[in-house]
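Data card: per-record layout.
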Amino acid sequence: MRKVSLPNEFLAEADAQLRQGQPVRIHIHGCSMRPFLKETGDCVELLPFPEGEPVRGLCYFYRWEGSYMVHRCVGGANGRYRMAGDGNRVRIEEVDRAAISGVLHTVQHADGRTEDCRSLRWRQLGLAWYCLRLPRRAVAWLQRRLPFGATTDANRTTDANQPTNHAPARNPDRLQEQLLELLRSGLWGTPARAELFDAHTDWAALYQAARQQAVAGIVLDGLETLPRECRPGRPLYLQWCTQVLHLEEQNALLDRRIGELVTQLRAEGIEPVLMKGQGVARNYRVPEHRSCGDIDFYTGKKHYFRVNRLLDSGVTRWHEVRYKHSGATWKGVEIENHQVMAILNAPWADRFLQHEIERCLRLPHPRQLAIGSTEVTLMPVEFEVVYLLIHALGHFTHEGLGLRQVCDWACLLHRHHRDIDPHEVERLLRGTGLQRGARAFGYLATEVLGLPPECLPFDPTEADATRGRYLLENIWQMGNFGWYDPSRTRRPDGYWRGKWHSFTNLSRRNLQHRQIAPAEAYWLPYSLIRQFVHAQLYRLQNKQ
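The structure for this 544-residue chain is written out next.
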């Protein structure tokens, strides 16, 4: 059987290869399997998961809540299993049998040693370490409070596919200043100020902060403008470059898959509309260095189920089929087919939004963009300005926001500000009730990221600056999609308990953030109930 060696950014493709019966090699990223697996050069071999049930003590490759990871089985039965990272002292993942695609076979350590990960010794050591979780928590608690050996629980919410937290820099304000300086340099191609960087620069913390905010590629572009004596040491620099090289490969793969997908659907008389993602990347100075994810496209209610059937031959696994969208691993990449492009909480704003979506789709000359050799359809640029804002504020309310989403919006305005009709943008913002959110983003784009003020379709005020600073504070605290929010708690087991947990968490966050989008905050409970009812009706219809 052919073996493939993939970076961790291609974990979806690794999942596809394993489900096709092929072994896979991946390099470890993250700290969640320490001390047995480390990201300092360890490479693991995964074998396809055989028929049967997971064995307690062995490590498995699986998908959980949108992320792929390699963690140890610590219990479970009847199709539901508990997985825990060896380095995690708190979190346990509940995983369905169908989500598991691989089993850890061997690990080759950076020093050349190879270990059999299916041996009795490996299982016993791992389970013994797991049983020490309570005393390990106590030791960590003491370390955080004693004046020596202070550490952070970097592994509490990390996994094999997420960036890891380092101990905070001695001067967080200095770290933020340095990161933003390199980010501005990478975004706009201006030289970074070398005087901000010296022998005491904590480059490891900067690297981790860039990954937490999903801007590692852009920050590396800014780093390249520094004199050699101001750059990080060779090992970290090479690790950073390797990470960005993998990012370039992933972007190239997504571009190829977009061409294949659009070509296949057009042959069936269906014109998909590309949303976010690779279309937004084309607004960047170096599109290949934007952190990418999945392929989102809109086909509408008329073609929704037909498109799912057409793509099914290339699908390795369907992750979800909901009334808003369906998600799958298709030819090694994550895709989402949308029959609903976006939803707003306020009923009057949502009616306006749906009317505008239909109006834009009926335009005789839709906006086109070349991705590779394929021309793809996009929404009008004024609508995209508001749509990216809706998407970003949705993430802000539900889980958290990273600098990447603000960079997406700023780069769109920078690339198209001469083509944008500010009166049309103002009409759309007024109709959706998002003027406050847009102006807070305007502050971040200009004062924090360095976007020229003339690129904004409005003039920010001092009140906008106050809300913008509030947004920035939350961005620093939570990181991309809220993965690093210290107040984030694990969703409990069980369908209804999980729903109640999500509802209460969202309601609490909603009260805290209502100054950014007051109408959306006011109508959130109503919207959650409405979406829940729609989801249950959809489930009942599909059972029939």
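Known properties of this structure: The chain is about 45% helix and 15% strand. The two ends are 42 Å apart (CA to CA).

See the next section for split statistics.
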